[in-house]
Amino acid sequence: MVIVGGASALEYVAKLANAAAKKWQRQTGGVVDICDPDRRDKLLKVMPVDEVWGIGRRMTAHLMAMNVRTAWDLAQADAWTLRKQYSVVVEKTARELRGTPCLELEEAAPPRQEICCSRMFGTRLKTIEPIRESVATYVARACEKLRAQGSLCKRVRVSIRTGMFNPDEAKYAKGVICELPYPTDDTRLVTRYAVAGLEHVFRDGYSYSKAEVLLLDLRQRGEFTDDLFAEVQPEAAERVMSVLDQINHRWGRGTLRPASVPIAPGWGMRREMKSPSFTTRWEELWRVNCF
């Protein structure tokens, strides 16, 4: 256990304290308090330089040649010399050890204000049925992201377009914003309005290459201030979406999905030249045959 005081992000010192708490557990009781500068300096003086995070075996040998044997010695070394002879990383390490924060704490990313899902079709589509399937699929993915950040949306924009670079194809692009009856994260409701918007903008006689779904007017729960008699999302819808997400999280995306989302769409993106997923899919791991 490490106790760190102040707002400075002294990550290197905290990692040293953590190592000390493990190394000398009997003497420290598993707790190292580095709020006191004197205790922090005492820790630096007894910790070997190779215990410092980021100082490897080769760098340790170089520092030993400079008579830098402890974390305290590294903290007292000239930062500019370390940067010139080695790297800016070693310089920042020394500055952190002497109390100058160089690594900023990463704050949690704020919720997105818009969520978009868009793909090119694998083939040109001339009828509305497969485009309707694609819009339903994109809505399902976008709403999944919406629920993951705990937001609700009040509007959805659906748009379609043809290819824009073939001079022999007629050009067409159109989008429409659909106002939802109440703030929601219900995939079924958003799909119904998005499909209605698609039917409004679709025109026969064109070869479509792309569809896009954009969730707009996103806010966290409780941020919408409607009047007392405004319609709100039913609790049953929230329970259904919660169960859907739990099942898909446990058994894989697409295990449970709306009926409007196809299993193996014929309009999906072409992936003949896609790189194998060696690090994320068991079935695509390299196989080595021994003879």
UniProtKB/TrEMBL annotation:
One Gene Ontology molecular-function label: DNA-directed DNA polymerase activity
One GO cellular component term: cytosol
InterPro entries linked: DNA/RNA_pol_sf (IPR043502), DNA_pol_Y-fam_little_finger (IPR017961), DNA_polymerase-Y (IPR050116), DUF4113 (IPR025188), UmuC (IPR001126)
Record bears the keyword DNA damage: yes
TM stretches of this protein: none
Biological processes, Gene Ontology terms: DNA repair; error-prone translesion synthesis; SOS response
Positions of the UmuC domain: 1-56
Assigned keywords, A-Z: DNA damage, DNA repair, SOS mutagenesis, SOS response
Keyword Transmembrane among record annotations: no
Alphabetized PANTHER family for the sequence: DNA REPAIR POLYMERASE UMUC / TRANSFERASE FAMILY MEMBER, PROTEIN UMUC
Listed name of the protein: UmuC domain-containing protein
Naturally occurring in which organism (per UniProt): marine sediment metagenome
